[in-house]
Write a structure and sequence with these properties.
Elements: H1 2-8, H2 12-15, E1 20-25, H3 34-47, E2 51-55, E3 67-73, E4 79-86, E5 93-94, E6 105-106, H4 112-122
């Protein structure tokens, strides 16, 4: 936490009030998937989000909603961190069935834009 405080400086209190959402794939060969969970855990500690509950990834929209996920909650019942591992996703944007770029958009994935909108608006 001391490194985060040093990097953020006077903005640290505002940083700890933000929400973050992380999604990654178990087939990412460019970035080791373990860093996603480490980042989520670190931010949860920074924000005091001690309660961790599962996300029903299978209930999410998209052409491939396989995987696991967690929400980390602040004491005021506000979700602070969302972490999802989408099974089969590589190093690309999980767009569900949308998008048109060939190399960096995965259409066989959770519809992350839909999930992200609901995450930021509903908790």
């Amino acid at each position: 936490i001391s490194n985060c405080k040093a990097l953020a400086g006077s903005l640290y209190p505002k940083v700890t009030q933000q929400r973050i959402s992380i999604i990654y794939g178990d087939n990412d060969y460019y970035v080791d998937p373990k860093y996603s969970s480490l980042n989520a855990e670190a931010y949860a500690v920074m924000t005091g989000a001690a309660l961790k509950t599962p996300i029903d990834v299978a209930a999410q929209k998209g052409s491939n909603s396989k995987g696991v996920g967690s929400l980390y909650w602040r004491k005021n019942d506000e979700a602070a961190v969302s972490l999802i591992e989408n099974t089969g996703l590589g190093h690309n944007w999980p767009a569900g069935q949308g998008g048109s770029a060939k190399n960096f958009i995965n259409k066989n994935s959770l519809n992350y834009p839909n999930y992200l909108l609901r995450f930021f608006l509903s908790f």
